[in-house]
Amino acid sequence: MLQRRVVDKLGFSVHLHAKENNIDLVLEILKPDNFKPSVFSAELDACLENLRTEYKGQFKVSVEERLNQYVVGVVLTPWVDA
Fold first, then answer.
1. What is the mean pLDDT of residues 56-65?
2. How many Cα atoms sit within 13 Å of 2 on the Cβ side?
């Protein structure tokens, strides 16, 4: 099992947890004062398109909006048949 947490000065943290059957990735993204939801949405859509291309359905994504942050969860199952 591998678990890693990286905190960046720009206002986000990444939690990575590798298990036998999947990889869990959780991003906590703080909303800056000049936050633009449309920009965040466009960036998230681009990331999801990359996941669709690379992992062809072998992933699940959840997005939770909180007062001052977004929490994005991704579960990858790249070695399990889709």
1. 90
2. 9
d(CA 30, CA 36): 12
pLDDT band at 72 (very low <50, low <70, confident <90, very high): very high
Tokens of 78: 């790249």
Contact 17, 2 (CB under 8 A): yes
What's residue 62's pLDDT?
94
Rounded CA-CA distance 10/30 in Å is 9
Which residue is it, tokens 């062809």? 56
Amino acid at 22: N
Phi, psi dihedral angles at 55 (to 5 degrees): -110, -5
